[in-house]
Design brief:
The chain is mainly beta. The protein folds into two domains: 3-91, Elongation Factor Tu (Ef-tu), domain 3; 94-174, PRC-barrel domain (SH3 type barrels, Roll), CATH 2.30.30. 7% of the residues lie in helices and 46% in strands. The protein is built from two helices and twelve strands; from the N terminus they run E-E-E-E-E-H-E-E-E-E-E-E-E-H. The chain is elongated.
């Protein structure tokens, strides 16, 4: 399994017990949907290694307490401390309506209600305080904020996202 086929679930942040249980800080809006997992991929020296789970449950909101089959003492827990956990993209719950995962909209066309087709989504920049669509049009890059006010519709069948951009924003890039 390659990282490109997976999504980042979280990171092992601390040991929980002398029996090898660990706490994982989840990167998830709904951590409760990961309570009954049977396995995960653990990144060890940049390789994804499958780890099977005896028991896992939520611990204080966004932490998941995991008892792995392969980790039964503190020394074994120490070896995976700080490791990142991944799941296959196929394990993501399907989203409907105007909700989407950033990876699923790469290659979608963006259609503005004033300017029409303003290009293809080549990526999403989520390192800023406001996530941005990275759009390519005729060799130019446009950055459009991803907000409920701007995003009007996601048409998965047509691979198109409809937006209403603020006056002048598209002209700033294409004008």
């Amino acid at each position: 399994m390659q990282k490109s086929d997976c999504f980042y679930l979280g990171k092992v942040v601390s040991k929980y017990s002398f029996k090898g249980e660990v706490l994982v800080k989840l990167d998830a809006d709904e951590p409760e949907i990961y309570e009954n997992m049977e396995s995960v991929f653990v990144s060890i020296r940049n390789n994804l290694v499958p780890f099977f789970i005896d028991k896992c449950r939520l611990h204080k909101s966004a932490l998941l307490r995991i008892d792995f089959e392969e980790v039964k003492d503190e020394a074994a827990a120490d070896r995976i401390m700080g490791a990142e956990l991944y799941l296959p993209l196929t394990a993501l719950p399907k989203l409907k309506g105007n909700k989407f995962y950033f990876h699923e909209i790469i290659g979608f066309t963006v259609n503005d209600d004033v300017h029409g087709d303003i290009g293809l989504i080549t990526g999403v920049n989520d390192t800023t305080s406001q996530a941005l669509f990275e759009i390519e049009k005729n060799g130019k890059q446009l950055l459009i904020p991803i907000t409920d006010e701007i995003l009007t519709k996601v048409d998965r069948a047509a691979k198109t996202i409809f937006v209403t951009t603020p006056d002048g924003l598209v002209d700033l890039y294409l004008g």
